[in-house]
Design brief:
With about 150 residues, the protein is of the alpha/beta class. Strands 2-1-3-4 form a four-stranded parallel beta sheet, with helices on both faces. α1 crosses α4.
Length: about 150
């Protein structure tokens, strides 16, 4: 059996394209941007979140220039894979791709904007999302084990 072909273009989607999907897009581009095209979109256009910027700055990835996009803003809808990060985005992606040959996968991610407490406690929620996304992206796109024999 051969491995599933590695996607050449991936769209990350969440609700507002303000926290989860821009973080995922930036992390993926940071590690795999020379090999794969990445984009992100939301159901609605939110405002980029300062905590998301701060959490990404901690790992040396600048997302401060990100402009939130909706599905309708996408210039190219030819993606090999759409990774959805919120239930609402998953439903929209399935609707969006009804007539396309594209895989849609759902990675449930907590909504860091719901975190409360001190600035540090809130930032920890964003760090948690960042680390979860980093792990999933590396698992999906990292080096493949070649079968032996």
């Amino acid at each position: 059996m051969s491995d599933v072909a590695r996607p050449q273009s991936i769209l990350f989607a969440c609700t507002l394209n303000a926290v989860r999907s821009p973080m995922a897009e930036a992390i993926a581009r940071h590690y795999f941007g020379r090999e794969i095209y990445f984009a992100s979109a939301g159901l609605k256009r939110g405002a980029l979140d300062p905590f998301a910027i701060a959490a990404m700055d901690e790992i040396g990835v600048d997302i401060s220039g990100h402009k939130p996009h909706t599905f309708e803003d996408l210039e190219d809808s030819n993606f090999d894979l759409i990774v959805t990060l919120s239930p609402e985005a998953h439903h929209k992606a399935l609707e969006f791709t009804r007539t396309m040959a594209v895989d849609v996968v759902y990675w449930p991610m907590p909504d860091a904007t719901a975190a409360q407490g001190s600035r540090e406690a809130i930032l920890d929620a964003y760090r948690d999302v960042r680390e979860r996304l980093t792990g999933r992206i590396k698992d999906l796109l990292g080096p493949r084990q070649q079968p032996t024999g």
